[in-house]
Amino acid sequence: MTTRIGVITFPGSLDDRDAQRAIRIAGAEPVALWHGSHDLEGVDALVLPGGFSYGDYLRAGAIAALAPIMSEVKDAASRGMPILGICNGFQMLVEAHLLPGGLIRNAHQQFVRRDQRLRVENAATAWTSDFTEGQEIVIPLKNADGGYIASESELDRLEGEGLVAFRYTGVNPNGSLRDIAGIANERGNVVGLMPHPEHAVEPGFGPDTTDAMRSGVDGLAFFSSAISAVVATAT
Q1: Residue 62: CB partners within 8 Å, gap ≥ 6?
Q2: Is the pTM for the entire model greater than 0.90?
């Protein structure tokens, strides 16, 4: 069985083709989906890609969270389908209340682009099982509204229940509270993060490593984890 992973394109999506390529490199079949549709075309997992949907008017991800296809995304999430929100996709997930908290303008009020070091805090989700807890990875980051916020009580709950999936290490690039770079829902099938794993899946095009320039492929494990989760559910 070939795992089919849908990538939803919204007006202003920039990284949908990159996500499709990452899925293909990981060994799954990418399926292009459209924001105005109500058909998920029988996919096994979903990616909400990065970009500036609807120009980030109102709030980043706020309008996209109301797109027609998001009704199906919510239903799929409730059924346990693996769903990954990357950058703008993460913003959509919080705006759609599939993940808690919010994302605001970077603390320094500037767009940031860097290869970012992360620590894996939760290796038991549908998108992180091919990592180990405490593992440090490097994947690209690029955002202007990447500061993760939540109430103190909500932050305590996320920490206490192990729902922080990734944490910034070395430097906090956008002022996210408690250095949170990504979170998961209680079931572990929905994950959102600000950095871009789809840009670190192929040697020659990823972050620099100690082995060679542009050789980092830490992002590949996100997509291979989802494939494993789908296969495990099918069997």
Answers
A1: 91, 95
A2: yes
Annotated catalytic residue, options 87, 95, 121, 199: 87
Is 196 one of the annotated active-site residues of the chain? yes
Angstrom distance (rounded) from CA 24 to CA 170? 31
Is 159 one of the annotated active-site residues of the chain? Answer: no
Q: Which is catalytic among the residues 72, 95, 198, 199?
A: 198
> pLDDT by residue (tens digit) across 76-103?
999 999 999 999 999 999 999 999 999 9
Residue 79 class from Cβ within 10 Å (0-12 exposed, 13-18 middle, 19+ buried)?
exposed
Amino acid symbol at 100: P
Query: SS3 sequence, 73-121?
Result: HHHHHHCCCCEEEECHHHHHHHHCCCCCCEEECCCCCCCEEEEEEEEEC
186 carries an active-site annotation = no
Q: What's the chain's average pLDDT?
A: 96
